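Hi there, hope your week has been kind to you so far. Thanks so much in advance, here it is:
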Amino acid sequence: VEESLLYSHKHFTTSNWAMLLGGIGGLLGLLFLTERYGLFGYGYGSLVGYFLQVVIPLSLFWKYRRKFSISLNFKDKGLVRVYKLMYPVYAMGGLLVLVHITSRALAASLGPGRVSAFQYSGTLTWILPIVLANSILVPLFPIISERVVRKEMESLKEILRQGTGIIIFAVTPIVVSILMLRAPLVQFVFERGEFTPEDTQLTAYTLFFFAPLILAMVLSLLYTQVIVTLRRVNIGAKLTVMLIPLNFLLAIALMKVFDVGGIALAMTLTFFIQTGVTLILIRHYIGPIGLGRQLVPSLKVLIGCAISAVPAHYLFQHMEASFD
């Protein structure tokens, strides 16, 4: 609801930057509060961050306060319409939270340190898509809405092609960098206090399976925005419902092979499947998009990133050995 209000007043970036506050609050809690409050420090930081995430964007509407009033009258036709529109969104959000809770429960069954490794590596993974979405996708959202309203589907397809190409070009190097430098990254951010070098290794191992999720999430944000603009939110909610048991089954199977990394891999695979199915649905509604043209450039980006990441990996290993 808050995001819709901001979009209607052409504040396209505010809500996305605000979404960073929850994750940043959690990281600050880990860095500065855990020595005094233990694991509760992470919770306190996250709580303050999520509170600010809601309050700061709402402050923009203070000048409109005389035009708005709070109402919980369920007979109000406007409210009923909003409730019906928001139901699929609430369902999707609640189901995603359920996936996270289930994954943490599975991680807890694997032994000490697994939940922390899953949580910390996940925190690093979930923050980046928000930053990337804000810098890459937000400028496209109003254009996508405009093309759908005007029924300019060929122009919408071109935006999807360009948006997909930009995402792959911008995000793939980040994913490869995290894969290659995950241990120094985790060590720099988390290794202090009770967080031991063994915890660093386990978290870095889990991050290896989480990192590709960044690409899937950013692509998913683009394609989901198109689905929402096409007024097919119910389809997105149904897709989420179907993917929850798939994620659970994948996690059960993969955790036997990859330990806690298998749970992270299950979530990554689930998001890639969700992204692929969403793209298929968009193609069904607006026709062929022509993303095949992005295949060769995408492979070139991937190969180039892999080649450049190898010397960077050994350079960091050499630097770490020198400091030791």
Q: What stands out?
A: The mean pLDDT is 78. The CA atoms of residues 20 and 130 lie 7 Å apart. DSSP finds 14 helices and no strands in the chain.
